[in-house]
Design a protein that fits this description.
Length: 187
């Protein structure tokens, strides 16, 4: 019983010490660099949006160069690019969505179903545009398109597979509240 009381008292003292250290670190005045660090992620996020659109345009230019699009194929190319180019998300779209916290469960499910239908409709439009464009290509262009498409999907699959694998590999029994057994017996 005394051993338990000592261990418990030690744990309380350690928690108090950590709490004091955390409080004193929190109470320190912020430096001039701190406000800039707080605004940096917002700027990085805006830059990322610009980079995504720019990167998509670069991919399309690269694909057009690799496929060597002929003037007779330009209309099909333009239609394809228009169909697969992601629409920029407007702030107005986010403001028009209802507050999910105020909706009942059936209303949230209905909204999710509606959004899923819209996403599926857009995906079908992209697929149809891709099929139509692919049909306008000659066999050598189709082969090049297949290679680029397969490479792109391969990278996407590896990224998704690697992400899940990393999480599984680096989480041991201690990450989920389990306590590992001691390696030596206490006597």
């Amino acid at each position: 019983m005394q051993r338990f009381q000592r261990t418990f008292a030690t744990a309380i003292a350690a928690a108090a010490l950590l709490g004091t250290a955390a409080f004193s670190a929190h109470a320190q005045p912020q430096t001039a660099a701190a406000p800039a660090a707080q605004t940096a992620p917002a700027h990085a996020h805006k830059a990322q949006k610009v980079d995504l659109a720019q990167r998509h345009a670069q991919r399309m230019d690269h694909l057009k160069t690799v496929l060597q699009i002929q003037p007779s194929q330009q209309a099909a190319w333009d239609k394809y690019v228009k169909a697969i180019t992601p629409e920029p998300r407007a702030k107005a779209d986010r403001q028009q969505r209802p507050d999910l916290r105020k909706l009942s469960t059936p209303e949230r499910l209905d909204l999710a179903q509606q959004l899923r239908k819209e996403r599926n409709a857009k995906a079908e439009q992209r697929e149809q545009a891709t099929r139509s464009f692919y049909a306008s290509l000659n066999p050598s262009q189709q082969k090049a398109f297949d290679a680029i498409s397969a490479q792109r999907h391969s990278k996407s699959a590896k990224h998704k597979e690697g992400h899940g694998k990393r999480l599984d590999d680096h989480r041991g029994p201690r990450h989920h509240g389990a306590i590992a057994a001691p390696t030596t017996a206490v006597q």
